[in-house]
Structures are given as C-alpha cells and as structure tokens.
UniProtKB/TrEMBL annotation:
It comes from the Bacteria. The lineage of its organism: Bacteria, Pseudomonadati, Thermodesulfobacteriota, Desulfuromonadia, Geobacterales. This is YcxB-like protein domain-containing protein. Keywords: Membrane, Transmembrane, Transmembrane helix. The chain crosses the membrane at residues 28-48, 54-76.
Length: 169
C-alpha cells in the first residue's frame, strides 16, 4: 500500500507558515525603496535649510525613515496576518483524503476532488510540514493530520518522489 490517508485540517499556524514559504522573495533594493530613500534625503536637505541645522534635520529624517521603512510594513503585516487567520478560520471545512502515486484525493462535506500531481508546480517537504502548490493555491500536510507516523512518512516520500520526477523539479 503506497497511499497516505489524512483526516484532519492544517492548523492556522501551519497554513500561515506555508503562505510565508510561498511568498516570492523580495528584492533588497526595489525601485520603491530607492525612491523612498531619495525622498527622505530631499526632506532632510529642506529641513536642514529651514531649521539652519543639518544635525536636527538628519535626526528628524532618520526617525521618518525608521517609521516608513520598518514600523509601517510591520504594522501592515501584523494586520494582514490577523485578517488571514480570521479568513482561514471562517472558511475552514472538515476534510479527509489520501495521497496516492497517481493523485491527491480531498473529500469535504460538499465535494470530492481528485487532483493529479501534474497540476502542481511546487512540491515541498520542510521540517514537519509538506505542501503541494499551484501558484499561491496549496494543499498543506502535517504529521498530526495522519492516522499513523507511517502515513506521514508515505506522504513525505510521495511528495519528494513526485518533486524529483517533475521536469522543473
């Protein structure tokens, strides 16, 4: 038997971890970042002329820079995480299913889906988490979703095997 049966849902925390892994890597120097730094420099120059002191202007500009570059994105990310957590919890449907060498079967109260491995463009096993994804849509798996450690091992092995057999894997 080369199937791995699951009968629980992924936790919100694990779903958020997968979403983080699926996020495209951000460039260190984006065009928006360069424009922001240039604008802060211009603001500092203007403040230096108005206040007559470049030291005060540099201090004010530095504080503005910290707020713009560090604090605002962190606040937005925290708000986004809360919204994702609420959305995930509100839309969670009990599911069960199996991973087989041919497909992944997901059964909910309303529908049974049979997904061929070939539709997924990303297959990963990371620590105690495994997932298959097409773009930003994914199915995630963790050990607690499976009835036995053997099923969890079969799940990981199937995903690793299918990743190796992908043309771009």
């Amino acid at each position: 038997m080369n199937e791995a049966h699951f009968n629980r849902n992924l936790t919100v925390e694990d779903a958020l971890r997968i979403e983080q892994l699926l996020k495209p890597q951000e460039k260190i120097w984006s065009s928006e970042g360069v424009v922001t730094i240039a604008m802060l420099f211009v603001i500092g120059m203007i403040l230096g002329k108005v206040l007559g002191s470049s030291v005060i202007a540099i201090g004010i500009t530095s504080m503005l820079g910290i707020v713009v570059v560090v604090m605002i994105p962190k606040a937005l990310d925290k708000s986004s995480t809360r919204a994702k957590r609420k959305y995930y919890t509100d839309n969670l449907k009990d599911q069960e299913g199996a991973l087989t060498p041919e497909k992944i079967i997901v059964i909910t109260e309303e529908v049974t889906s049979e997904l061929k491995w070939s539709i997924f463009n990303r297959l990963e096993v990371v620590e105690e988490l495994a997932f298959v994804a097409k773009g930003r849509e994914y199915l995630g798996f963790a050990p607690y979703m499976f009835q036995s450690p053997e099923d969890w091992e079969r799940c990981k092995n199937l995903i690793i095997e299918k990743k190796k057999s992908q043309p771009h894997g």
